[in-house]
Amino acid sequence: MENILKIYTDGSCLGNPGPGGWGVVILHGDKEIYLKGGAKDTTNKRMEMMAIINALKYVHDNELSLYTIEIYSDSNLLMQSLIQGWKRKANLDLWKKIDDLRGWLNIKWIWVKAHASNKYNNMADQLAVAASTKIKG
Prior knowledge:
By secondary structure, this protein is α/β, with parallel strands linked by helices. 40% of the residues lie in helices and 33% in strands.
């Protein structure tokens, strides 16, 4: 059986720009790993990207690069940029980090509908909103 990591990512921003957060849920075997963080003055798109960056850092830091990785996001722009090669016009610093981290990894990029019935996408959203709210104070 193939080793698969399922990773759900989301970003949140209270105002755009404003205090933002990102959330990640990683399904690793029978474990659920939760990651979150944020920034004071940011945008929703940057937080969506930071969720992916931090998920990929987790993969590298935990030596999981031999896994098949499924990354789920509700950001159509991000997914189409990664899958279809849509032109990157903003946040080039974060695009570079994503490209550097995804390198030779076997990643399947999957778009999911936001705020729908996907349990783990909703959990990633809740983590992102919690991080934004904490930063806002």
